Amino acid sequence: MSLVPLRDDLVPFLKSYLPSNEEQRPGLKPFVTLTYAQSMDSRISKGKGVRTVISHLETKTMTHYLRFHHDGILIGVGTALADDPGLNCKWSPVDKIADMQCSPRPIILDPQCKWRYEGSKLQELAAQNLGKPPVVVVNKLPAWTTKAKAVTYVEAPVGPDGKFDWLPLFLLLKRQFQLNSIMVEGGAVVINELLSRPDIVDSIIVTIGAKYLGIQGVEVSPPAGEIEMDDVAWWKGSKDAVVAARLHRT
Ligand SMILES: NC(=O)c1ccc[n+]([C@@H]2O[C@H](COP(=O)([O-])OP(=O)(O)OC[C@H]3O[C@@H](n4cnc5c(N)ncnc54)[C@H](O)[C@@H]3O)[C@@H](O)[C@H]2O)c1
Ligand SMILES: Nc1nc(=O)c(N)c(NC[C@H](O)[C@H](O)[C@H](O)COP(=O)(O)O)[nH]1
User: Fold this and answer.
1) Which of 80, 161, 175, 181 is most buried, taking the most CB atoms under 10 A from its CB?
2) Is the Cβ atom of 109 under 6 angstroms away from ligand 1?
């Protein structure tokens, strides 16, 4: 389905929260934007593994506008398995065609190699030149990965909790794939961890949809407790609101 036009007032609203093109910051981490859509009761889906539409068409277009402005788009394997997402960019300025070049590089955090490229939406879009093939971050390369030539598998160490360490991970992604800006689109495990990392997250852009998803829904709520925000700005659409902010750095 094609997108509705981008609301004009979203452009100035988002401007100061987007990565700047000039900023290369060699040796430093990439610019990281944490973005997702939540219900009124802070849920990002109806249930674990259930793909759920929360955004209005206006804010769906905004998500593609955000994708246009980032070099990479990162998700956890839970989202890859639940949503089979495309992660490409369908928005482009009027003088450009939205093709593979406009799209960010998908990055999937999959320490235990649960996701398969074959048969995925990512494979379908890459085959049509409508999206870039992904980088999959694993703990240890399984033997079969060599068959899927379009996918780049990267090994990264995990800690005792089975997780990659965020800062070395983002540094690796910038160094190895020249990704100067990365938007993180979820899911809950990834979002809940990064909400407590003002040292990593540069901007946070959250769509709030006018619906409740209920107690069975997948919740976003930082386990670390209260989180302060700075430079908070609100946009109001015909049905959704968007809050843009920075996580407070002490
Ligand atoms: N509304 C939205 O904006 C939105 C966005 C994305 C996903 N979702 C929904 O969220 C749900 C999926 O969320 P989830 O929490 O199950 O999945 P997730 O996408 O956060 O993936 C979790 C998994 O990713 C891997 N992972 C995450 N962080 C890691 C790290 N630091 N190191 C190593 N591995 C790491 C682990 O294997 C972990 O189990 C789905 O229902 C999906 O529809 C909604
Ligand atoms: N902005 C936003 N609004 C929503 O209502 C919703 N459910 C998501 N969810 C984000 C999640 O990462 C999805 O998997 C991708 O948004 C799917 O991406 P595609 O459209 O297939 O490219 N994101």
Assistant:
1) 80
2) yes
Rounded to whole angstroms, how far apart are CA atoms 50 and 81? 10
Ligand 1 contact via 85 beta carbon (within 6 Å)? no
Judge if ipTM > 0.85.
yes
Mean pLDDT value across the chain:
94
Are 171 and 25 a contacting pair, CB within 8 Å?
A: no
Q: Which tens digit of pLDDT belongs to each residue from 46-95?
A: 999 999 999 999 999 999 999 999 999 999 999 999 999 999 999 999 88
- Residue with the smallest CA separation from ligand 2 atom 13 is 85
Query: What phi and psi values does residue 131 have, to the nearest 5 degrees?
Result: -165, 160
Domains and CATH numbers, the chain: 10-17+36-247 (3.40.430.10)
**Rounded distance from Cα 199 to ligand 2 centre (Å):** 25
Does pTM surpass 0.95? yes
Backbone conformation region of residue 182, classed left if phi is above 0, alpha if psi is from -120 to 50, else beta: beta
Quote the percentage of the chain above a pLDDT of 70: 96
Mutate to test the pocket of ligand 2, among 35, 50, 63, 207 (most ligand atoms within 8 A of CB): 63
